Amino acid sequence: MVASADDERFMREALDEARRGAVAGEVPIGAVVVMAGVIVGRAHNAPIARADPTAHAEVLALRTAAGECGNYRLAGATLYATLEPCAMCCGAALHARAARVVYGARDPKAGAAESLYRLLDDARLNHRADVRGGVLADEAARLLSEFFETRRSTRR
């Protein structure tokens, strides 16, 4: 399935956030939250800078969006993330009542949207979100690969 122009446009914004994270020494994962075609939250990973294991890009972007909207419920929102969200981030999207989650690269080690679990469409939960994976996946995966390759080469 081909990604929509909007999905690609907003994923590029998330990729820009991921690049900012890499410059800051964080694992390059970025996220944006979109409501009615407008970005209301954006962030990159920041667990190192914040000394906070919950400072994933998705959680931080959702927090920003909730503050911007004045409501922790983000009905109708789409969360864009450069990497398939983990269980914590999927849980945050569900609690925020995001309508959609769109991600770039799959995460076979921790992905909870489709790879390891399917939390976002689990009928046992009281909310579900539509999932669209693989949007600009090659670019997202390349950012991560280059980051870790650079890290490994500087440690030698």
Question: Short description, anyone?
Answer:
The protein is built from five helices and five strands; from the N terminus they run H-E-E-H-H-E-H-E-E-H. It is α/β, with parallel strands linked by helices and 156 residues long.
Main attributes of the structure:
156 residues; alpha/beta; five-stranded mixed sheet; globular
Summarize the helix and strand pattern as letters.
Answer: HEEHHEHEEH
Number of helices: 5
Q: How many strand elements?
A: 5
Query: Mean of residue pLDDT?
Result: 96
Global outline: globular
Biggest beta sheet summary: 5 strands, mixed
What this model shows, in words?
With 156 residues, the protein is of the alpha/beta class. The protein is 41% helix and 18% strand. It contains five helices and five strands, in the order αββααβαββα. It has helices at residues 5-23, 47-50, 57-69, 87-95, 137-155; strands at 30-35, 38-44, 78-83, 100-105, 130-132. Strands 2-1-3-4-5 form a five-stranded mixed sheet. Helix 1 packs parallel to helix 5 (137-155). It is globular and about 50 Å long. The N and C termini lie far apart (41 Å). The mean pLDDT is 96.
Q: How is the topology of this model organized?
A:
Blueprint: H1 5-23, E1 30-35, E2 38-44, H2 47-50, H3 57-69, E3 78-83, H4 87-95, E4 100-105, E5 130-132, H5 137-155
